[in-house]
Amino acid sequence: MVSTPKLNQQYWVARIQEALSQQNPLNLSFLCRHTKCLIFSLCLGLIFLISKVHEELLNPFMPCRAKTNVMFLKTHKTASSTILNIMFRFTERYNLTVALPADQLVHLGYPSTFLAHFVEEFQTIGQNYNIMCNHLRFNPSEVQKVMAANTFYFSILRNPIPLLESSYIYYKDIVPAFRISKDVNEYLASPTKYYHPADYKQNIYARNIMWFDFGYDNNAEDNKKYIQAVLKEIEQNFHLILIAEYFDESMILLKHTLCWDLDDVVYFKLNSRSQDTVQTLTPESEEQIKAWCSLDWKLYLHFNQSFWRRIEETIGLEELEKEVSRLRMRQKELMETCLLDQEAVGKDHVKNKALLPFQPGDANILGYNLKQDLDNRTLRTCQKMVMPELQYTSYLYAVQHPHKKRKQLGLPLLWTTFQGKKQPTAPN
Ligand SMILES: Nc1ncnc2c1ncn2[C@@H]1O[C@H](COP(=O)(O)OS(=O)(=O)O)[C@@H](OP(=O)(O)O)[C@H]1O
């Protein structure tokens, strides 16, 4: 298929050369005076133009234009805060407009089903937002009111087994089913003992949370026809689904699909826990998750397969491997430039409390310390790379809606000063 336009082009060039070589100069000048010659030249130009356009569309090595209208469905405990950070840095790089939570909200109305008016200034900005990536429960018709028709939609899934363990620790204090069980294995030994239908709204993090985030009923019966219908609908609504277990591969696929460059997808891992707050699941618990969260399990299996199909159809495994190592090299380079400790540190070791991630439940969410003496430009780049979700949301809100009351996050004064400037220069 790729060679068709080229063949056409070669064919026509050969035919024309053949035609020209059969003319002597006299005949040629006579012909050129003829109107046929004009039509002939026009056709020739047209053929070249069409083949060029075809070539650009089909040749992956031709320069392409970066997509700037992008909606990311931020699912829970799936590495989505790292992607939100990528999206916010992209927003700033291209001076884009992001659909931020209105007023004092830090999420786009979650866990309520999304409505357009959850977005700040939707009434005036209308459908002119470029980026949307804060937590929301997906509702396509309302999201489409906010995002332009040519928006690219993507999301990320994680294996429900580690996801449930992560969710248990993170939401231990707020989810009734988690609060009343001793640990994650006890919960999974008999989930229905702790998961009471009356608390289903507060218990969303305890069962099929990804299914819920995509807008579906997380307590629905596991029925083949229903699951097939949902998977089909998700495929229609989303152009790409990434997989957290293959985060770097996902970033390369994203970069290719959106025509972004390497620095647009380079990242530091955000919102991860210290190892001592990770609970070990028994083999029985792991099996139980597949049954208890069977909707998420099937969702994950389906899109894990299509993810690898997509890689094969677009980048290919060989090129993927090369690009993943380039991404890791660039990440290492930036870590050496930015980070004091070369790695994430526990909550008690984060020196600048303004850069401390939100600390819920039993989790010790890691943060970063930046090197001292960074020049202003480097400092800004490094700060943005380690900036947690709430702080970055609040910062962009202050920049984008300067006349609105700032979001009250209860962060240290230092951070408030930091927010006030368009070009932040806060000390580490
Ligand atoms: N790059 C990358 N690769 C793999 N895994 C990653 C990455 N970035 C974040 N994480 C892990 O994702 C978990 C946090 O997910 P979220 O940021 O989506 O959580 S939240 O819902 O926004 O609170 C959290 O998982 P747990 O550590 O198991 O809790 C992070 O460690």
Automatic annotation (TrEMBL):
<dbReference type="GO" id="GO:0009247">
    <property type="term" value="P:glycolipid biosynthetic process"/>
</dbReference>
<dbReference type="Pfam" id="PF06990">
    <property type="entry name" value="Gal-3-0_sulfotr"/>
</dbReference>
<keyword id="KW-1133">Transmembrane helix</keyword>
<dbReference type="InterPro" id="IPR009729">
    <property type="entry name" value="Gal-3-0_sulfotransfrase"/>
</dbReference>
<dbReference type="GO" id="GO:0009101">
    <property type="term" value="P:glycoprotein biosynthetic process"/>
</dbReference>
<comment type="similarity">
    <text>Belongs to the galactose-3-O-sulfotransferase family.</text>
</comment>
<keyword id="KW-0735">Signal-anchor</keyword>
<keyword id="KW-0325">Glycoprotein</keyword>
<protein>
    <submittedName>
        <fullName>Galactose-3-O-sulfotransferase 2</fullName>
    </submittedName>
</protein>
<keyword id="KW-0812">Transmembrane</keyword>
<keyword id="KW-0472">Membrane</keyword>
<dbReference type="GO" id="GO:0000139">
    <property type="term" value="C:Golgi membrane"/>
</dbReference>
<keyword id="KW-0808">Transferase</keyword>
<keyword id="KW-0333">Golgi apparatus</keyword>
<dbReference type="GO" id="GO:0001733">
    <property type="term" value="F:galactosylceramide sulfotransferase activity"/>
</dbReference>
<dbReference type="InterPro" id="IPR027417">
    <property type="entry name" value="P-loop_NTPase"/>
</dbReference>
